[in-house]
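Protocol step 4 of 5: obtain the predicted structure for the target chain.
Materials: sequence only (see below). No template structures provided, no constraints applied. The aim of this step is simply to have a reference model before the mutagenesis design in step 5. Sequence pasted as it appears in the construct record:
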Amino acid sequence: MKTERYAFILIADKRYWSKLCERNKASSGIHVFVRKSKVAPKNAQKLLFYVKKPVMQVLGIADFIERLTGDSGELWRKHGAESCFETFEEYCTFAQGRTMMTFVRFKNFVELKNPKTTEATRSILSSLQGFRGKYVNLATTKQLIT
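Step 4 output (structure tokens):
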């Protein structure tokens, strides 16, 4: 694995982040981050979870397993139990009628005990405005999580 694409930053809103953390506390193992688009890693070792406004910090890290893109119903049938959605109806509301979705599977999810401040995160990443995910190298990953 090249160190230029060591980790991929996934962007979540505060509510989705909270649900993900609750799900992780309820059961460890493999989880799924659900995306409405194909913007997701193909190859990475780690996933970083950036919570957007008002938090604007990287709050978690996990080991990347795979990216799955396809029919929203089929993905739900195969991996919906790994998501933070409790029901198919809740998932459908999130999907907003999309027939194609992306599931990013991961394991060993950890909430960072001492995340960088918003200012420090900004200085490391510059601006995250306008993008839906981003690869970062090993050095940047270490700066964000230590």
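Step 4 remarks: The longest strand covers residues 57-71. DSSP finds five helices and six strands in the chain.
Proceed to step 5.
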